[in-house]
Amino acid sequence: MKVDRFGESFIWGASISAAQTESATDSGGKGPSIWDEFCNRPSRFFKKHPIKNSEHLKNSADFYNHYKKDIDHLKFIGFKHFRFSIAWARVMPDGENINLEGFEFYQSIVAYCLKNDITPWITLYHWDLPLALEKKGGWTNPEIVNWFDHYSKTCIQYLPNVKNWILLNEPSVFVGAGYFFGIHAPGRKGVTPFIKALHHANLCINKTYYSLKNINPDLNVGSSFSFTHIESTDSKPQNKKAAKLADTLINRLFFEPIIGKGYPIENIKLFSKSQKNYLKKDEYLLKTPLDFIGVQNYTRELFKYNFLNPLLPIKHIPASKRTKELTMMNWEIHPPSIYHTLIKLSQYQLNTPLYITENGIALNDVIGNNGIQDYQRIIFYQSHLQEVLNAKDEGVDIKGYFTWSLIDNFEWAEGYEPRFGLIHVDFVTKKRTLKESAQWFNQFLGRKLDSTLK
Ligand code: GAL
Question: Quick one: which of 33, 264, 400, 431 could link to 11 by a disulfide (CB 3.0–4.6 Å)?
Fold first, then answer.
């Protein structure tokens, strides 16, 4: 597979997010975020710490002080696009009032990107809500729509050289894991917080899309969605029905309202009548003509019918029970998933360009005598890119691909063991080391690696 097959205008980039890489959690006037608070929770003998090995995001890669080095690496690998996020609590410590020093940090990143001919793509919300706003209800408070709008408008005002904006990163994950299962910050559980957070996230996408475009119609404003490919364990009708329900809960619920199809909730018995009404009452407001859709796919999941749970009659079959092709996240390595995801999206006939804004693999990369030989990651990228190309060849409008991730980082509740980077980070010394996969990308992209770069 040659890079030219993707076409000259196809863009190549790498992604990171603020909470996972910046460290410096209270430097430069930054306020606390829900993830700072989540990591600060004490371990008690009857209650485990929410993060594996009781890790803390403040010990991540210190991108705050190493951003130039990381952008140098990105450039030398051969990427021309860089996706990163703004920590809302860095630029607005209480969620509403400006901290200039915070904006200056992002202005320096943007300036450094542009100086190096790298195009910035900024995610406005990658899960690190200011704690002050969570104390007022966070995503369950309808006011979030105004808080997010004010924050986003301020960001585009302070970063006028940035054209590409991603509104929210994967609502299904921050709403599902943070407000239903309680395994991500802010650790809330239940159907009611889930319903509210889901609806408010969708309202945010809609309102702020129009706000930003009204201020500057030339901006390229999209949003990123998680799309997990769902299959049933076999072709038995009740298992297929269960897989359909799982697909609705995991994918469609978060995407279809935004494309004007409303909430697909008729068959969801888990939601009460009043919860359904809450979603339905202004679902007609949600249709948003996003300039692009950010597609994030990592794996597939399998489901079957579960007669024991009449409210939610589905059973998830964990990947570890069905395959040995697992990543450090215990996710199945299944390249056709990204192809099926792209094909399914094209069937909506939206006429909206797609960008893969995340795709990657977590391994347990260790530095040996010959560096970091992450061949499994190279194979992962080769096979997934082939599937992207297959979809593109069939006419799907895919305009770019961002790897997850540029550097090893804090993998939320999983802590530091799963390493997703093309660049290894020693979390103690903060030393960066390019992995074999970074060298592979460099060759694939046809750039010459600067040998002075270590
Ligand atoms: C996505 C998320 C990223 C990263 C990745 C790998 O859901 O946007 O922040 O953690 O998954 O798990």
Answer: 400
